[in-house]
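Hey, resending since the last one bounced:
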Amino acid sequence: MLDELENDWNINKNSKVSSSIYDIAPDLSTLTNVYTLYIYDGSYNYNGNTYSYRYIKVIDDKGYNGLTQNQEFDAISKYSSHYLEEILKYNFGYIFSTLLSKTPIGVLTDWTLGNIFSVLRGRPDSAVVTSTKDGIYKITHTSVTSMTYYWIYNNSWRYIGAEAHCDVARTDFWAGNIGGVPTHESKESQWSTHTDGIWYNYLEDYINVMSWNPSFCNIKRLGSFSIKGENNSVTFTPRFAARPNDLV
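The structure tokens again:
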């Protein structure tokens, strides 16, 4: 499969052309058993010339999980003991660095447990809160990335770039002993992020340098983000496949 995908990146101009250059365009057909593919063809006019292009969107919806990531984080240390007042004052949060290409809009970047869990409200501040080896406050993230790959016809089909969109599901889960009372609560939320640019940016970026750099390829990375816990942190990196070969 890897060899077949490698051949899909750049198709030699000596390949036989029948009714259309799209007959020899990359189609990533070796991936159809594990991903859903959407193929888009067209012509683009730029600086007085017309260029043929193809881009293919890859969706991880067939159970292969090549573009799916799951991570659980104990945001409060295991075997810890606190007064409720202390826990409610502590700020947890996201750190969206420049590594993440597109910082999500409207995502709460820092929070307290009182913002999330109603079960903690209205209890005595002096109540002792304890956790076990399973942790008292867990944050689980699951991400699914969709990749889009771009080609342009320049004497042969040239692989010129990749972009990504990522959907993230988050679950906050509380399970602890508050002053002798067992308490559970969970809260779910979702958000998304994506790389910068739109489809014709990849074409224009390539056309601008193709005369002297025909192998130019613009791969825009998705990046990572961090989650800050009580006295710890973890980095979450959604799956990203820079080239079709990286999907298998």
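Helices lie at 2-9, 84-89, 113-116, 199-207.

Sorry for the duplicate.
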